[in-house]
Write a structure and sequence with these properties.
There is one protein chain. Helix 1 (128-137) runs parallel beside helix 2 (155-167), helix 2 crosses helix 3 and helix 6 (236-248) crosses helix 7 (294-309). The radius of gyration is 25 Å and the shape is globular. It is α+β, with helices and mostly antiparallel strands and 405 residues long. Strands 9, 12, 13, 14, 15, 16 and 17 form a seven-stranded mixed beta sheet that branches. Strands 1-8-6-3 form a four-stranded antiparallel beta sheet, with no helix packed on it. It folds into three domains: 3-111, RNA polymerase II/Efflux pump adaptor protein, barrel-sandwich hybrid domain (OB fold (Dihydrolipoamide Acetyltransferase, E2P)); 128-184, Dihydrolipoamide Transferase; 201-404, 2-Layer Sandwich (Chloramphenicol Acetyltransferase), CATH 3.30.559.10. The protein has helices at residues 128-137, 155-167, 173-181, 185-200, 213-230, 236-248, 294-309, 383-398, 400-404; strands at 3-6, 16-22, 29-30, 35-40, 45-49, 54-57, 66-68, 72-77, 203-211, 257-258, 263-264, 271-277, 280-286, 323-327, 346-350, 354-360, 363-377. A hairpin with a 4-residue loop joins strand 10 and strand 11.
Length: 405
């Protein structure tokens, strides 16, 4: 019996997925669990596995196509089996809103899928995610052309309209489409989330400068053994992840989140590390970092960084972060303030470690100094709570060997 291959829903509120490439081609024999294709979502490029044994046939969507979630894009057939006709009964996995055949499909499409038109009642069709985003970005949905099924306005349409408005005072409809196509999925997601965070989360910032001499020393001491045993170079970020996670155990509010109408404490400490990718930044998560060894953190961080650069992060790699760290020291940045990643309550921004002249016992001396800037959500923590956390973190970083034991 034929098994449909549908565009999967890999994230909450996901409306479409973009086919990056087919690993298997039409007519290939496949086994359950083998990789069929790669799909790009707002967060990552994900490998999709075959759900049955058989032969790949009836491929309807190619690399580069953006397909609504739930739409059948191919079939897994028994040897000699024909591709099923395009009916609702042959594609039970498809969602109601995406069961219309796409224009490029070989089978005839239902009449209502011919051209996007507004419903006769005059009501604007818009997805819940797009409606929420329109409100956040101040976009008038009456001026937006929907590109989804039956003319439904999607979040991509809203983002495109907002970008076009920022680029030109009176954008034409064609400019809106052009602006949307210039943004990658990661760039669109970053634009949406940073706008949401900056406009809705009451940020406040605390800055602490501290001596990083001990941090450099423990890296020099532990690094060679980890590199020899695990084949990975120990970084300052690895040390920060391990030490921050252990300090967070004493400050659960800093590891909490804002849950709409109240504060939710997280049972686990999952550190999200900001990593640069093409056209943006993603937060790759090291789970339960407070109970993970420094060597294991280093290995996980390297693996996440390599897959982030290759666009191979999975949704699970960027999910469930409870506290973020962003380090721009490698770019020779002395200090900066970071935007919180909701629903997390805080993010630690780390500048470069550099020699500076400071007062030591009343005398000028040269020390390796680093500046930490803590951004916090005032709905979850107040200034005193954040200050206590930053003080404890500074103390832990001044004696990192003891903190990691």
């Amino acid at each position: 019996m034929a098994t449909s291959v549908v565009m999967p829903a890999l994230e909450m509120a996901q409306e479409t997925g973009k086919i990056v490439s087919w690993v298997k081609k039409e007519g290939d024999a496949i086994r359950k669990g083998e990789i069929l294709l790669e799909v790009e979502t707002d967060k990552a490029v994900v490998e999709i596995e075959a759900s049955a044994d058989g032969v790949l046939g009836g491929v309807k969507s190619q690399a580069g196509d953006v397909v609504p979630v739930g739409t059948t894009i191919a079939w897994i057939l028994a040897p000699g089996e024909a591709v099923p006709a395009e009916t609702a009964s042959t594609a039970p996995a498809a969602r109601t809103m995406t069961e219309q055949a796409r224009p490029a499909a070989p089978a005839p499409a239902p009449a209502r899928a011919a051209a996007p038109v507004a419903p006769s009642s005059g009501e604007i069709q818009i997805s819940p995610k797009a409606r929420r985003l329109a409100k956040e970005l101040g976009v008038d949905i009456a001026t937006v052309h929907g590109t989804g099924p039956d003319g439904t306005i999607t979040s991509d349409d809203i983002t495109a309209a907002a970008n076009a408005r920022a680029a030109a005072p009176s954008p034409a409809p064609a400019a809106t489409a052009s602006a949307g196509s210039s943004l990658s999925a990661v760039a669109r997601l970053m634009a949406e989330r940073t706008t949401q965070s900056w406009t809705q989360v009451p940020h406040f910032f605390l800055v602490r400068e501290l001596d990083a001499t001990a941090l450099n020393e423990v890296r020099a001491k532990l690094g060679p053994a980890i590199e020899k045993d695990r084949g990975v170079k120990l970084t300052h970020t690895d040390l920060l992840v391990a030490i921050v996670a252990r300090v967070l155990k004493k400050h659960p509010r800093m590891n909490a989140m804002w849950a709409g109408k109240g504060i939710q404490l997280n049972p686990d400490i999952n550190i999200s590390v900001a990593m640069a990718v093409t056209d943006g930044v993603v937060g790759a998560v090291i789970p339960k970092a407070d109970s993970t060894s420094l060597a294991d953190i280093s290995v996980q961080r390297r693996d996440l960084a390599e897959r982030a650069r290759g666009g191979k992060l999975k949704p699970s790699d960027v999910a469930n972060g409870t506290f973020s760290i962003t380090n721009l020291g490698m770019y020779n940045i002395d200090a900066f303030s970071a935007i919180i990643a909701p629903p997390q309550a805080a993010i630690l921004a780390v500048g470069r470690i550099a020699d500076r002249v400071v007062a030591v016992n009343g005398q000028p001396a040269v020390r390796a100094m680093v500046t930490l800037t803590l951004s916090s959500d005032h709905r979850v923590v107040d200034g005193a709570q954040a200050a206590l956390f930053l003080n404890d973190l500074a103390e832990a970083l001044s004696s990192p060997a003891n903190s990691l034991s």
